[in-house]
Amino acid sequence: xxxxxxxxKGSNSQEKxxxxxxxxxxxxxxxxxxxxELRNTGQLPxxxxxxxxxxxxKSDELITDDRQVDLSPNxxxxxxxxxxxxxxxLIVNGSSKDWDQDKISFKEVIILAYGNYVDxxxxxxxxxxxxxxxxxxxxxxxxxxxxxxxxKMIFHATATDKS
Length: 163
Fold this sequence. Notes:
This protein is mainly beta. The protein is built from two helices and 14 strands. The chain has helices at about 35-40, 105-115, and strands spanning about 15-20, 25-30, 30-35, 50, 60-65, 70, 75-85, 90, 95-100, 105, 125-130, 140, 145-150, 155-160.
């Protein structure tokens, strides 16, 4: 089937291309779309990054405003947005700390609390938290664990050197 990039020219029945942006299905007239057109279609602010969900083991692809994406003729391309400017304030041992990720690890809490993480058999850390999001409203963390965060979430970290 011949594809036309200009609507209304060439064939009598214009092929529709489909894509999904943040869970919403969209019909598109052309075989390609730019990042700026995705941003406009989704009414996304400039602080938002747009990604093309990859198939297989590849990493998802960042789509800049000037980038053209060839829409798949055999299915629906999936795009999602992520606010790159999103920052939350975490309260760690009574001090406000800026954080720009959706999750935080045990080790990252310790680094926010003490400036570094000492991986030694004599050093013991504990981390408790409260006022968290619905996924993990309160609890404690263990080494190599991570939790989702929200604005003004509270962390209590302790460090004990048994030397």
